[in-house]
Amino acid sequence: MAAVREALPEGRYGRSQDERADRKLKIVGSVLGAAFLAMFGWFGYDYVAGQDVSAELIKSRIVSDTRAEAHLEVRKDRDADGHCTLRALSEDGGEVGRADFRFDQRSGRIDEVVSLRTTSRATAVELKGCSADG
Q: In sequence order, which residues have a C-beta less than 8 Å from that of residue 103 and are 6 or more positions away?
């Protein structure tokens, strides 16, 4: 009975070099993946933590052909002053009104209903964004 060989001759078919290259690629891929996740997390944290004033449009109501109301919830630092920009849109998507509303109250959370004048009947109100002064 002949002896059966378990492994291929060392270096004969090139498998050891391929295995080393695969290992290097796996290491490089995992390092790059971890770096990408860290960068993505940093950008997300910086975006959220960097905003001194933020707001959420709770609801809006079209009151008349020349006026719309919006219920805003503003979150900010107690000592920060800022403003939020709202715009009213017509049925075709055109802008029929735009206004900035200041929030100078010394509170971390402000819940307020604001009124926006329009040039014609609006169908929607949109929060464009908020920014801190200074």
A: 53, 74, 76, 81, 82, 83, 84, 110, 112
Closest Cα to residue 70, out of 118, 114, 124?
114
Question: Which residues on adjacent β-strands are paired with residue 112?
Answer: 72
Helix (H) or strand (E) holding 43: helix 15-49
The answer to whether 56 and 84 have CB atoms below 8 angstroms apart is: no
Task: Tell me how far apart the alpha carbons of residues 89 and 6 are, in angstroms, rounded to a whole number.
Answer: 76
Question: Which is higher by pLDDT, 98 or 15?
Answer: 98
* % of the chain residues with pLDDT over 70: 84
Strands 124-132 and 82-89: antiparallel
The pTM score is 0.61
Amino acid (1-letter code) at residue 102: R
Angle at 74 between CA 68 and CA 78, to 5 degrees: 145
